[in-house]
Design a protein that fits this description.
One of its GO terms (molecular function) is ATP hydrolysis activity. This is ABC transporter ATP-binding protein. The protein is an alpha/beta fold and 296 residues long. It has helices at 43-50, 72-76, 93-103, 109-119, 132-145, 162-179, 190-196, 214-220, 272-295, and strands at 3-14, 17-28, 32-36, 58-63, 78-81, 150-154, 182-186, 199-204, 207-213, 221-227, 239-245, 249-255, 266-269. A 6-stranded mixed β-sheet has the order 5-6-7-3-8-9, with helices on both faces. β1 and β2 (17-28) form a beta hairpin.
Amino acid sequence: MTSVLQAHELGRRYGKRWALRECTIDIPAGHVVGLVGPNGAGKTTLLKLASGQLEPTAGGITVLGGRPAGGPEQLAKIGFVAQDTPVYAGLTVSDHLRLGARLNPRWDAAMARERIARLGLPLTHRAGRLSGGQRAQLALTLGLAKRPELLILDEPVASLDPLARREFLQHLMEATVEHEFSVVLSSHLVSDLERTCDFLIVLADSRVQVAGEVDKLLATHHRLTGPRRDPDRLPADQHVVSARHTDRQSTFVIRTDGPIHDPAWTVTQLSLEDLVLAHMDQRTAENRRAALEVRR
């Protein structure tokens, strides 16, 4: 299967601070990709690198087989909706559609008009008079009518109420089915990703912690609960993602492709939220240990 995005040892630095580093991922085409992580993890930096708004400090990235900012033809393949759902407050809805038609060679005017009519957005209203949900839907319309092969969404529903967020994501999923394009959706709300995404990337501390198809990740991650045990005593094929201990009990989240035979363990499956939090907790624990070493 062809890749919609490939990155190898990708990094971006601002002064002395790495916003993203050692990022190696391969995203097959045809997926709705959830990009999740805490604030400051590097999500927006990765998306701006993928859309050609930033140049890498290290490593390389290709999107749809070419450099993200490799020219007008390449840029036309990528749609981008930023976190603040950027629209022009002083322009009417109709003005936005005309602007989209002038700037985008693959513009689908019929689709844009149909979506605006279905959403009930008045063509003569200025964007500044629309609600947050309406502005988000207008921004999504502009991204979809561009007819991209890849649509990148940087936390587009972060500021919306639950109803507006659900409507936005529902319309997004309908569009992916109808027009068959790939999506990378950044969010810190795992519940949104559970409803929409079939491929997951977890970023923490500016690094990729895990990436893969959601079904496979859930099938290969397990929670083990049993008598207190040192993680070094677990089989070599059981990679420890996170660990918690009391005086008598250990709880591990592990990743393994093989069966778990040890009868001492109670084995339970993870939810997507459990999986995400385990990988974020792993990085947090490593950072705490590194800080202690520095202090010593």
